Amino acid sequence: MNFQIRCFYYGDIPDSNSGGDPINAGSEIPPLGGGGAAWPLWEVFIRSKQGLDHKHVGSLKAADAQMAIENARDVYTRRMEGVSIWVVESKYIHASNPDEAESLYDPANDKVYRHPTFYDLPDEVKHM
Questions:
Q1: pLDDT tens-digit profile of 29-65?
Q2: Domains of the chain with bracketed CATH
Q3: How far apart (Å, rounded) are the C-alpha atoms in residues 118 and 109?
Q4: What is the C-alpha separation between 52 and 16, in angstroms, rounded?
Q5: Do 54 and 86 touch, CB atoms closer than 8 A?
Q6: Is residue 84 a contact partner of residue 64, using CB atoms and an 8 Å limit?
Q7: Predicted local confidence at residue 17, as pLDDT
Q8: What is the pTM of this model?
Q9: Which of 31, 36, 56, 68 is the S-S candidate for 87 at Cβ 3.0 to 4.6 Å?
Q10: What is the DSSP string of 34-85?
């Protein structure tokens, strides 16, 4: 029995004769994206129809931003619940260290004027 395994990547259009990159017996299957480069990780944020802000819903791997948006649409908005999608390459997200939260947020505790809890908001004021 003689057969050949072929790899196809996102966006590949095989020719009528063959298509894909042939993989020889004993060789490793190349990583996604071809050319030896792995696809970067993207963080996905969706804004729902009821919300005013984008919420983090998960991560996915994609070759570029357009592919990440299309994949996020397919994976995270299957029931038409989103109105906007943001994707950010994970390497561009920087976060504070949870172990340093006390020293990071401590200076804000002595500024009570930033927390207007001393008066009632009228019912007409929304989203405050």
A1: 555 545 546 899 999 999 988 888 999 999 999 999 9
A2: 1-37 (no CATH), 39-93 (3.10.20.520)
A3: 16
A4: 49
A5: yes
A6: no
A7: 45
A8: 0.56
A9: 68
A10: STTPPPPEEEEEEEESS-SSEEEEEEEE-SSHHHHHHHHHHHH-TTS-EEEE
